[in-house]
Amino acid sequence: MSERYRTGDRVRTSTVDPDHHTRLPHYARGRRGTVIGHDGVHPLADLSARGIQQPQQVYLVRFSARELFGHGDHSVTLSLWEDYLSDE
User: Where are the domains of the chain?
Assistant: First the structure.
């Protein structure tokens, strides 16, 4: 499976607030971050919870605390499926 994003790419997370299970934290929706690596190919958790297996690339995305919470000088890294991301 090819990787859509490379280390150093800037991405934005989805703003969708589905009525079903999702592994995209609410505090990270619509936020901008930087891809810092890849975390393998895994079934999309949102679909797996409904019995559907759809493997896709998972990325390590770093966000500044200021971007996520409005303050702080640290960063937060999340493992996020490709469906959660778009080009900035």
Answer: 10-87
Task: Say if domain 10-87 classifies as CATH 2.60.120.10.
Answer: no
3-state helix, strand, coil in the chain (%, to 5): 15, 40, 40
Encoded tokens for 4: 């859509």
pLDDT per residue as tens digits for the range 45-63: 888 878 888 899 999 999 9
Query: Residue 71's CB: how many other CB atoms inside 10 A?
Result: 7
pTM comes to 0.91
**Spacing of C-alpha 55 from chain mean position:** 15
* pLDDT on residue 48: 81
DSSP string of 26-51, one letter each residue: GGGTT-EEEEEEEEEEEE-HHHHTTT
